[in-house]
From TrEMBL:
GO terms for molecular function: 4 iron, 4 sulfur cluster binding; ATP binding; ATP hydrolysis activity; ATP-dependent FeS chaperone activity; metal ion binding. This is Iron-sulfur cluster carrier protein. InterPro entries: Mrp-like_CS (IPR000808), Mrp/NBP35_ATP-bd (IPR019591), NUBPL-like (IPR044304), P-loop_NTPase (IPR027417), YlxH/NBP35 (IPR033756). The gene is apbC. It holds the Pfam family ParA.
Length: 360
């Protein structure tokens, strides 16, 4: 809501009530129409803005950091106000509205095939959302090859079970993590048929005592088999992200993944092209090892938002191998900012799609 606005006074009236900048309600409304938030692409709703004595608060229903305030501060009218950011991340509709949800928005990170860096993307997106001010959890749904304990660290720490037989997730780098890898020995192999693996995944999802979360990132196993279908049909999903590399064989499988989620009624929040290019650390030369813009073309053809193009970089690999992801240890590095841009786009698109669905 709009707060109290200062009105113009005639010269012979008393001195102004305060030193707050002079801005009329009409000028504010016009400014909110013309100033666009990054990636939002629509007028800023007046319900997101509160003005009080020259101080302005922008309250967003999705994860963001203070970079979103830059266009407001740069505007001639809005720049007179002292802006601050507040988050009130909204719990959005999901694919199974009849199921009880004890936490926020479930985002599955999927790929049509293995080897495209899906787990790496899952971890970095989860950490980036946390750095954008959200409470974030991550679930390792790849029961055959759980990799979160390696990428987040703490392999030697096993999950605790409370008196209610609920698993207590680990807190790693500011996010909450649950994985079969925190329950078994690192060298153990999960030799399960599809139904057993699907049941184990459902139990891992439901029997983890998550704290209050804004987003739960689910690192799915690759493919479009029993586990993916079970999760999509029996568990509440807010949106899905497809990870691919630019090469043709990966793109074909990415489109299969998009088709599967659409058939079971799960919205595709976006596509992320990983390993888009290799950049030499010595000379800066970029080499498109797996092709150029393949993910961009699939996103355009399938009418799916493109969340970003991430490079193939040794620093990303090294950080994950050591259990210290780059976005957590070097949050101001250019690569980390690129990942946070993708996480912000993901949060915005998730909210935008849900808003359109509610208005339909």
């Amino acid at each position: 809501m709009f707060g109290r606005f200062k009105k113009s006074k005639s010269p012979d009236t008393a001195a102004p009530e305060s030193n707050a900048p002079l801005i009329t309600e009409q000028a504010l409304a016009a400014a909110l129409e013309r100033v666009a938030l990054p990636e939002w692409g629509a007028p800023i709703p007046s319900s997101w803005v509160h003005i009080e004595a020259g101080n302005a608060t922008l309250t967003l229903p999705f994860a963001a950091d203070e970079r979103v305030l830059e266009p407001l501060r740069a505007d001639a009218d809005l720049g007179q106000l002292k802006w601050q950011l507040k988050l009130a991340i909204e719990k959005l509709p999901n694919s199974q509205p009849d199921l009880p949800m004890t936490f926020g928005n479930v985002i599955v990170i999927s790929s049509g095939k293995g080897g495209v860096g899906k787990s790496s993307v899952s971890v970095q997106l989860a950490l980036a959302l946390q750095q954008l001010g959200a409470n974030v959890g991550i679930l390792d749904a790849d029961v055959y090859g759980p990799s979160l304990p390696t990428m987040l660290g703490g392999q030697e720490q096993k999950l605790e079970i409370n008196a209610q037989q609920k698993m207590i997730p680990h807190q790693r780098h500011g996010i909450w993590a649950s994985s079969l890898g925190y329950l078994t020995d690192t060298k153990d192999a999960a030799i399960w048929r599809g139904p057993m693996a699907s049941a184990a995944l459902q139990q891992l999802f439901r029997d983890t005592k998550w704290p209050r979360l804004d987003y739960l990132i689910v690192d799915m196993p690759p493919g479009t088999g029993d586990i993916q279908l079970t999760f999509a049909q029996k568990l509440p999903i807010t949106g899905a992200v497809i990870v691919t590399t630019p090469q043709t064989v990966a793109l074909a499988d990415a489109e299969k993944g998009i088709t599967m989620f659409r058939k079971v009624g799960v919205p595709i929040t976006g596509l992320l092209e990983n390993m888009s290019y290799y950049q030499c650390s010595q000379c800066g030369h970029q080499d498109a090892i797996f092709g150029v813009d393949g993910g961009v073309r699939v996103a355009e053809r399938e009418q799916v938002p493109l969340l970003g193009q991430w490079p193939l970089d040794a620093r990303i690999r090294a950080g994950l191998d050591e259990g210290n992801p780059l976005v957590a240890t070097q949050p101001d590095a250019p690569l980390s900012k690129l990942m946070k841009d993708s996480a912000y786009k993901l949060a915005v698109e998730l909210y935008r799609q849900a808003s359109k669905k509610r208005k339909a």
